[in-house]
Specification:
The chain has four helices and 44 strands. It is mainly β. The strands form nine sheets. It has an eight-stranded antiparallel beta barrel with strand order 1-2-3-4-5-6-7-8. It is elongated, with a radius of gyration of 29 Å.
Length: 689
């Protein structure tokens, strides 16, 4: 069928297998126990909530699959090409001893379902562990067939017929192979694809055909290895371990060997018994390397082998090279006409938010709402004097609803109340306020919840939240948090992100904080316990938060990446978006402006060299950037040059926002230093895959 299949038939050279969820009984903390495996699998499953629904089996289906009711056995699927896959099923025989079954199959994609058919699968016998191994003694034995069928990237069914039994079992994804696919093209926040991700696949010693290793780098940065070999009596054995990169090697300090459950319909996961086998160390590049093992069981001992690659996943390549933004998207640069004006000229426009269809909500004229109609390509004036300020108007994803703040007559900076505009009903003031003066600082992505600040005349400024059709509720504060500004809210209204005003060395700094339900807020910290600052943006669930800076006291060392945008995840993941070559060496260089529903695409501003041809001029200006976990940060200046626009006509960039579906980026700024000639651009993004 192909080289892999031929090798399999001749000498069972292909000897990789799979991982499943382990439920160890009487766990020993010194080895890979139930608790550790739960951590491993919990980490492996990170990001699977963002798995893209799919029916066609493609590269992204590479990974581990299992039936949750049958803990202790499972499948590893390697997608090798558009039409070929390798499967390995690690399980047990009828007496509860380990058994591994393997085969090469054909991918078949139909209208509503994808499948991989393995008409022949094999076991092997004749091999012996260690120095007694004789490749000529290993023989493959055909034992039956199996088929995997998928409705999406996360679940499917497994049908086998062998050893006198036929069963169809439900399966679900257990692990996601790093860089393989089945996720948003933007990636998953906190799961960067490393250059060595392409090492995932099958490895063996050419002098020891009939045994081998299956390596999989997981999306969370850990590695899984399965060693398909034999005991000293010639019985099939598979060993499993989880490892990490350390000084150029992949170290697996604890490998497991199991026994107990019986094959097929008699399978009972409560029979599972696990034992610490020893350790394994891999040193490989993209084509070959070596392995050292040291068992705690006397019959296996220790030794070394030379390895070469046998299979490579269809994706990612090895070494992996991050794509350009234009490899992910077709980008169209759309200039939005904005007339030259002074700050108080009735023609003045400040675009602030954009709907999925391209409708733009802007502050215009003497602080009234102006809407850009993308089909007619004209601005529509919606009379009403509004409060002017950052984040002043918000438009719903469908473009039908706008949220703003009413202004005090003759003072556009003095708020009165929160307003909602719809074409059929016009402007409506939201009732049910807990305070008499309110200013809306943001909305949830779906514009169902609003947050802001408010006060009663003579009273303190207080943070609040409300459903768009509900009553305003004050967010809890304390003596330690006398003032706080909410900046983002989740689509279900349960979580609010903001900053508490604290003073460090006499300077006010916004310490990042998070409200959950009606509980008092908590401060956000990095893994080292440093207080984070400047939280401004979150994903649709506010499970991923973005901000800039740290809350540092006098004499406290500045941490690495201080001026970059940080991300904080509710699961404990933390990191930074990175930097750009022309970023200014200032204390705070980058600022997040908006994020997609999953947080994997972020836009914002950064301080850059004002004159790229003269990087030592000491002159800086704000510019726009776009970031995905897949590409890292990309300057819109560089992007425009790549698009052939070669356009650097920005004096300053003020606003960078996203449409809710991530298909449009709104950029607003000025062409001149007097801030009279506004400039608006919409980047239209069309995914390439």
């Amino acid at each position: 069928m192909n080289a892999v299949h031929t090798t399999l038939r001749n000498r069972a050279r292909l000897t990789t297998f799979a991982l499943t969820r382990w439920h160890w009984c009487n766990a020993n903390p010194a080895r890979i126990s139930h608790a550790l495996m739960v951590w491993i699998l919990g980490a492996a499953l990170l990001g699977l909530s963002t798995v893209v629904k799919a029916t066609a089996v493609d590269a992204g289906f590479s990974g581990m699959w299992y039936d949750p009711a049958r803990s202790g056995e499972g499948l590893q699927l390697e997608i090798l090409s558009a039409d070929t896959a390798l499967v390995e099923w690690f399980t047990y025989d009828e007496s509860g001893k380990q058994r591994w079954i393997q085969g090469v199959g054909t991918i078949k994609n139909e209208a509503d379902v994808g499948s991989v058919v393995f008409p022949q699968v094999y076991i092997t016998h004749g091999g012996k562990f260690g120095s007694a191994f004789d490749a000529d003694a290993v023989e493959p034995v055909e034992v039956g067939s199996l088929t995997l069928t998928f409705g999406d990237c996360a679940s499917g069914t497994f049908t086998y017929s062998m050893f006198g039994q036929t069963q169809t079992l439900p399966i679900q994804r257990l692990t996601q192979a790093m860089g393989a696919g089945c996720q948003s093209i933007n990636g998953v926040v906190g799961q960067p694809i490393q250059s060595y991700a392409g090492q995932s696949g099958s490895w063996y010693d050419p002098n020891r055909s009939g045994e081998g290793f299956g390596l999989q780098w997981l999306a969370n940065g850990t590695a899984l290895v399965t060693w398909y070999t034999y005991d000293t009596r010639g019985n099939q054995v598979w060993l499993l371990g989880v490892g990490t990169e350390l000084d150029g090697a992949i170290e697996f300090p604890q490998m497991e060997i199991t026994k107990g459950p019986k094959f097929g319909t008699a399978y009972d996961s409560s029979d599972l018994i696990a034992e610490d086998w020893g350790s394994l160390s891999l040193r490989i590049d993209c084509s070959g390397g070596s392995v050292h093992y040291a068992s705690t069981l006397p019959e296996f001992g220790s030794g070394d082998m030379v390895l070469t690659r046998l299979t490579q996943l269809q994706k990612p390549a090895c070494p992996y090279v991050a794509p350009k933004f234009t490899d992910l998207y077709d980008v169209v640069w759309d200039e939005i006409p904005i007339e030259k004006s002074t700050p108080y000229n009735p023609k003045r426009l400040v675009p602030e938010s954009i709907a999925n269809d391209g409708t733009i909500a802007a502050m215009g004229g003497v602080n009234n709402l102006v809407l850009w109609q993308p089909e007619a390509r004209l601005w529509e004036n919606i009379p009403r004097e509004l409060t002017y300020g950052p984040n002043a108007v918000f438009i719903s994803p469908d473009g039908t609803t706008v949220v703003a703040t009413d202004a005090t007559p003759d003072d556009p900076y003095q708020a009165i109340s929160t307003l909602v505009w719809q074409r059929a009903s016009g402007w409506q003031e939201l009732a049910g306020n807990a305070v008499t003066r309110t200013y809306a600082s943001n909305t949830s992505e779906n514009v169902q919840y609003l947050v802001g600040i408010g006060f009663n005349p003579g009273g303190p400024v207080q943070p609040w939240i409300r459903a768009i059709d509900g009553e305003q509720r004050l967010l809890p504060t304390s003596d330690a948090i006398p003032a706080a500004d909410p900046w983002a809210v989740s689509n279900d209204g349960r979580i609010v992100i903001g900053n508490a005003t604290v003073f460090v060395d006499g300077w006010p700094i916004g310490s990042a904080m998070r409200w959950v339900d009606a509980a008092p807020p908590s401060f956000l910290r990095d893994p080292q316990g440093l207080a984070l600052a400047g939280a401004r943006v979150c994903d649709a669930n506010c499970a991923v938060v973005f901000g800039t800076g740290y809350l540092l006291g006098e004499g406290q060392a500045i941490p690495p990446h201080f001026g970059e945008v940080w991300y904080w995840k509710a699961d404990g993941t933390f990191g930074h978006l990175g930097t750009i070559d022309d970023a200014a060496p200032t204390g705070m260089s980058f600022f997040a402006g908006d994020a997609t529903s999953d947080g994997a695409l972020v836009v914002g501003r950064y301080w850059a060299d004002k004159y790229p041809a003269y990087p030592d001029s000491g002159s800086y200006a704000t510019r726009a950037f776009v970031w995905t976990q897949t590409t890292g940060p990309v300057s819109v200046r560089a992007l425009s040059s790549e698009l052939g626009i070669g356009d650097d006509e920005w004096q300053e960039v003020d606003t960078v926002r996203l449409s809710q579906d991530g298909s449009k980026i709104l950029i607003f700024g000025y062409r001149d230093k007097n801030l009279e000639q506004g400039r608006g651009v919409v980047l239209h993004l069309t995914p390439k895959t």
